[in-house]
Design brief:
Adenine-n6-DNA-methyltransferase TaqI, Chain A, domain 2; restriction system; alpha/beta; six-stranded mixed sheet; N-methyltransferase activity; 38 helices; DNA_methylase_N6_adenine_CS; 41% helix; single chain
Amino acid sequence: MNENITFERWLEVLGYRHAQGLHVESSDISLSHRYRSELNELLRPDGQVRAKAVFEVDGVPAVAFFDNALSLSTEDLNRIRQKIWNQNLISLVIVMDDSSLTAYPPAKNVPVGTTLSAKEAITTGYFSLAEISSSDVQRRLPKWFSPGDRVDRQLLKNLGLAIEQLTKVHVARAAAQGLLGQILFISYLEHRNIVSEVYRTQRDVEPLHSLVASHNTRGIEKLIEALRKDFNGDFLSLDHTNSDWWSLVSSKGLDILGRFLDQVDLDTGQQSLWNYDFSFIPVELLSGIYESFIGERQSILSAYYTPRHLANFVIDEAFHTSLNPANETVFDPACGSGILLTTAYRRLLQIQESQTGECLDLAGRIKLLKEHIFGADISEAACRVTAFSLYLSLLEDLKPADIALLQESEQVKLPTLRGINLLCGEQHGDFFAPENLFATSQRFSLIISNPPWSEPAGSAWSSADVWAKKKGVPRARRQLAGDFAFRALESVSPNGRICLIMPISLLIASTSRPFIQGWLALAKIDRFINFGDLHNFIFETAEHSCAVITSRPRTGTQSWSIPADEHIEYWAPKVDASLAFGRLALSPADRHLVPAQAYYNDPTRLVTLMWGNEFDIALCERLRAIGQVKDLFNNGENSWRTRKGVHLKDKHAKFTSDAAPLKKIGHILVESLKSSSPVLLDDEIQSFPEGIESVVNLTDDLWDVFHGPRILFTDGFDSSKQIRAAYIDRPASFTSSIGVISGPESDRELLRFMAAYLRSDLATYFLLMRAFQVTCDRNRVTLGDIEQFPFFAPDDHFDPSRAREIISEVSLALGDIERPEFLRAQNHNPQIQKHINTLIHEYFGLSAVESALVTEANTILVPSVRPRGYKSINTEVYKTITKNELKDYAETLSQELGIWRSHLNGEGSIAVKAWTVNSAVGRVAVAAITLSEPEKAADFDEKKLEIWVKKTMEGLNSQGLLPAHRSETVAFLPDVTIQAPGAFLLLRPPFRRMWLKRSAMRDARSIVELIHREKVSAE
């Protein structure tokens, strides 16, 4: 069989041949495509990879196909995988011959591929377009997509180890960072043939690798000086004191640098992975990685490596609403090592080249850089890296003639950026210093930045504090990122836009309300993307997760006025397998339009909308309106009290107390509260710790909460998100790691009930819907969170008599747990907790639908919150929907539509059925809703509708609408509504997240709104 036919037949069988996103050998890649250069490198017939085709998932190259007609050797295949691994884009390598295909990950950790015979290949099977596009392949082969094996992780790991080892042989940390920075960037120039063999011959210099291997430091210095002379005086100047770096490195230090260049794993000493190839490693990756190990900047300013995909996302957002993107002037006031500026510059290059239809020459690239890219940073070293990263971007894919002109002509040099486009240092680079000429210029149409997330402690006073006090801007915890947001309004042009990466706590915590209200009065937020669920996948070492905010200044009469019809587009993407392909997949439940005034009045509304919807908001607000836990702390003589336990040690304490009284009562450890029991059992009370004779300030108030009825709780909890609260009334002390809620003896039963409530699924539901730290940052609950929980005493209940009965029944249930046979936590009967949950639902007056929402949240949503890493990426919400779950969805939707019909005095019959369909572009779940006249029974022809669904899916896919691309970094998961006479069809992926009961409630309202809009239009 002919090789072309064989290869094309494979693409046909697997569903790729006519798919949007397939690029074949020698095809023209659009000049505007973000990865045009990378795709050309992969597909060039005379290149180093020579793929026959590449398939992209949502704009990101994901699968490289190879025709094995020429019988690739193992060595050839390894060379190809090594190049692709370095490029850091492709996730799968598939080699085809006339009888089978073999698939591999790019990383070396899977030496033997997985083979699929031609007989086994089907359109919806293994390695098909359907499996790739749905990310099912990641679920099936998770080890192939391990982020730890990617080039950026390996390079970052080895850089960190190299720095640590260099410091042990007496190389200063700053010098170690600078040496490795020069190695990275010179390697880039050499591997990309900008520093070619011809150049080395003309300048009488040698390759860097051989110079390091031979310990020829004089030769290295000669090479660096030649590059500076030929390109620019700033070239490779990563620190103003670096002239003696190489001459001061010992033989042991040079050996470490040599092993780094040899791609030896500096942890194990073995060469376990592919060699680095900087002809494929992208510039932005170098820039971002270098930023990550500028240790002083990271520790003091709380700045973090901005991952490449996040940088791309930010630039997408920043340019998305641009009317004339080629004319944007971009400023980053905290540019770090320049990954955002580098990404923006590359985007501007692509835009201009797509408009002119040809690649920009050297003069055009220099002009673009000088006129459109600006930055500032207090770190001189970071600014030098920014300048060099921009130089490399300028040189990328430059014609050989232009490279030669740079190297040979004294009149043609790279532009000087520091001091002109880049303001650097503590004086001129400080965004809040009067000497920063960019800060108040209002000359920039676009401000993009990942500002420092610093909350200074104590009395330390900074330029930001001085500026904020002078301007009178509202602040939250002196958070520097908030000051940057206000200062950016003075830098951007009146019609410009601002795109910032911000700590999420600054934007949705109740304590941030002064900042939010002050900033929202001056800035109109267009889009708010909450990355809280991706906390462990973006800034992995950061304490807080982030959000990306796009906004613009309010001008003139708009300032301090928020129109009633102004809305914020709020996205809350969730972790799913599509991250393996470098994309965010947004489900319909992740996208909301939030009234700006509602956000102004209650920022925590956005916490609820992370996992909930308007029905959850309504439930929370209805219950909170009746009463809250905090009301019990302001109840006159019967007020409850709350505080922390005793400090056993505190070196700063001025007063200590004798610990003798504490030794006469029991003591409770944090571990005692880790069981699932809402009452503290006898065998969990310990003796006071031996060897401690004094404690910090044992006051009468503190002694009192060691006695009487009370609830103990810890700040932390496990993945179940259940508050670790337990009732106790026996004398016992506890440390400051434990909080307490205590009340009078007359409230003993109510305190027992409160403990059961805090352990219930309803309390966990409120945590999910109201506590931003739970959904965005870490497993932590504060008293402030608990105080906001709905709660009311029996006297305030709508049925006081039944309320008292429920409290007594819960107390009896707790008594069952306290029986001797339940003294061990593992014997805690789940049926008792289920019974308690039911009673608590009744106490709070939950309807059957509301109870179902709470149960659904606990069983499906809560276990899916903030996966800890790629091993747990396949969460409950993205499991495949079952027949029974689809049936539940259909029943809920039918019931909700019936309720709407009654409320609106409608008539007619409703029938709903949900099932799954296997189409040529993958599996899809379908809900069919048929409506008919009152005298007719609603019905539908399932087979006819199924054919319709398949044709619709194929048509949408052929037009590139599955999924709908928001940009190359974001895809909206399919959410298709088809309206036909008397019927609606809803088409979505078959994931649980899309077909929950709360989804059915939302869908019912949407269908009713659609019908009424059409009715109004017709009238």
